[in-house]
Amino acid sequence: MNSKFRLAKTVSTFTNPPIICIPLFIIICLTLSINNLWQFPLLEFISIIFASILPMAIILYWAERSGNDKDISKRQDRPIPLIIGTVSYFIGFLISRFLGLNDFLTFLFLCYAINTFIVMLITTKWKISIHTTGLAGPVCALIILLGPIGTLFAFLYPILIWSRVTLRKHTMSQAIGGGIYGFIFTAAEMFLFIFLFNLNVPNIYPFVHVFGFILAIIFTPAVLGIFVYVNYNNPLIFYLVEIIGFCFFMAITPIDVVIIYCLISMVSILVGYYAGEKFSWYKIIC
After folding, report:
1. In angstroms, rounded to a whole number, what is the distance separating the alpha carbons of residues 125 and 76?
2. 200 occurs within a structural domain
3. Is this prediction's pTM over 0.90?
4. Number of domains within the chain
């Protein structure tokens, strides 16, 4: 096992949705309880139980009993773990609602339940990446709450794409598509809930600003994915598209969005360079 493969496996392990959500939910809960830190222990307890420990424990038990690996690599075996996740998140929503906990966290649970259920439906036909979807959801929540600070965790997105493709757990389109789905649907649902239920969620970033950040995060990985899909390895055209993207963001988005676009693009390009010729991004950027 070479060093790149070992690194890809390590990245994949620590970005498993029930694991990566632990540090991300700590930040989310700290942010939500910043004016009353006494709320934090309860918010974090509910989060870690229903977003991490409960679904992970049940899924690992089921995987062991059914002879599956921890990643549940076979697409046809994934609906059951996804149903388990959906039920756990929905219970978290109901308990949070019953206890009158923070509206943002409460409806983030509902968002998780809906998105996981949709992923289950997609998985019956196409093996969308649960890893990249699971990263995008809480990162999107952090972007809504913290703006550019929240986007710092999105730097993991192109790295995770490389990891899942290198480990041959997903195709390029499945890995990229999971992140795009997670970012867009989480943002759309959270702002829809805020509007429909008149939720008490002060000091969040506006939808247009959040959507700008999301576009900045997914733009370069999506462009690279399209080039891979059509088998078009032309670095000159790729960098021309990147320049057009830069001009687009400069023209219509705030400067912090432009900076995130540049940083995510650089990370994506560096990932391609590091991965080498065996990774399809390499021939596009070199």
Report:
1. 9
2. yes
3. yes
4. 1
Neighbour-count burial of 174, counting CB atoms closer than 10 A to its CB (0-12 exposed, 13-18 middle, 19+ buried): buried
pLDDT in tens, 79-96: 888 999 999 999 999 999
Q: Is residue 166 part of a domain?
A: yes
Which residues span the domain enclosing 26? 3-206
SS3 annotation, the chain: CCHHHHHHHHHHHHCCHHHHHHHHHHHHHHHHCCCCHHHHHHHHHHHHHHHHHHHHHHHHHHHHHHCCCCCCCCHHHCHHHHHHHHHHHHHHHHHHHHHCCCHHHHHHHHHHHHHHHHHHHHHCCCCCCHHHHHHHHHHHHHHHHHCHHHHHHHHHHHHHHHHHHHCCCCCHHHHHHHHHHHHHHHHHHHHHHHHHCCCCCCCCCCHHHHHHHHHHHHHHHHHHHHHHHCCCCCHHHHHHHHHHHHHHHHHHCCHHHHHHHHHHHHHHHHHHHHHCCCCCHHHHHC
Q: Is 256 exposed, middle or buried (0-12, 13-18, 19+ CB in 10 A)?
A: middle
By CB neighbour count within 10 A (0-12 exposed, 13-18 middle, 19+ buried), where does 132 fall? buried
Cα 229 from Cα 75, distance rounded (Å): 21
Q: Is 286 part of any domain?
A: no
In a domain, 73, yes or no: yes
Tens of pLDDT, residues 123-158: 999 999 999 999 999 999 999 999 999 999 999 999
